[in-house]
Structure formats: structure tokens, C-alpha cells
Amino acid sequence: MKKDFIFDVLKNTPNSLTAEEIYNDVSQKVKINLSTVYRTLNNLVEKEIVTKVVRQDKIAYYELADENSNNKYYMICDVCNNAFPTDILDVNKLTRKIKRETGFNITSQTLEFHGICPECTKKSKI
Ligand SMILES: [Zn+2]
């Protein structure tokens, strides 16, 4: 099943991936086209097996859903453009609090911190 190949790619990486990145990997193992990758990913998102995160660069990133995935947000380095997931703050708790106190039914959230990662900070000092 093509779905299993996509699942494996996501399982074997700690990072979230774009549909193109998943396609590049899976297409080396099995004959597949990009629209199938998109369709399969949407299907997995509907079943809540995969989480889709649209970052402020408007690109959708996919990762396997787990109990912590809703809890993750990203620090984006403005120099190397890497995204670093973090869960220092409990986003689920924050979401529940907002829902409780405002009555706003929150369906999704994006939280991004921009800055310069430790690696790039180190390089800039050389
Ligand atoms: Zn960096």
C-alpha cells in the first residue's frame, strides 16, 4: 500500500515534512505521483493519523499525530530557516483556557517564534 510508504517516511523522521519532501522519498521506492501523495496525506489527516501544520510561510508540513503533536509549536531560525519543535509551553492547556474564557471554539492554532538558532548565533560571532 502506498499509504504505508508515506506512513513509514513520516515515522522515520523526527521532523515535519512537506508533501514534496515525502513525495521525493516515497517515489524512490514505489511508483507514485504527487497528487496521490496529497490525497493520501489528506486522508491520513482526516483519520487523525497525521497532523498538518501550516506555518506562516504558508507551506503545509506533515507529521505523525501523537498525543503531544497538538502541543508542539515551532521556533523558526531566520538564518538557516530550520524549524525547531518545542513543547516548553503547554499549548493544549492554553487552548482550553482561551476556549473556556472566551467561548471561542478553537479549531486550530499556529504559534511560531522567529529568531536565530544557537548554531547560527555561534557562527555569526566568528
Ligand atoms: Zn539557524
Question: Secondary structure elements and their pairing?
Answer:
Elements lengths: L1 H10 L5 E2 H8 L7 H13 L3 E5 L5 E5 L8 E5 L5 E4 L4 H12 L9 E4 L2 H8 L1
Helix pairs in contact: 1-2, 2-3
The structure holds zinc ion.
The site of zinc ion (ZN) has 7 residues, from helix 5.
Question: Explain this structure to me?
Answer:
The protein is an alpha+beta fold and 126 residues long. The chain has two domains: 65 residues, Orthogonal Bundle (Arc Repressor Mutant, subunit A); 59 residues, Ferric-uptake regulator, C-terminal dimerisarion domain (Dna Ligase, domain 1, 2-Layer Sandwich). 40% of the residues lie in helices and 20% in strands. It has five helices and six strands; from the N terminus they run H-E-H-H-E-E-E-E-H-E-H. The chain has a three-stranded antiparallel sheet with strand order 1-3-2. Strand 2 and strand 3 form a beta hairpin. The longest helix has 13 residues. The chain is flat, with a radius of gyration of 17 Å. It starts with a helix and ends with a helix. The mean pLDDT is 85. Bound molecules: zinc ion. Zinc ion (ZN) binds next to helix 5.
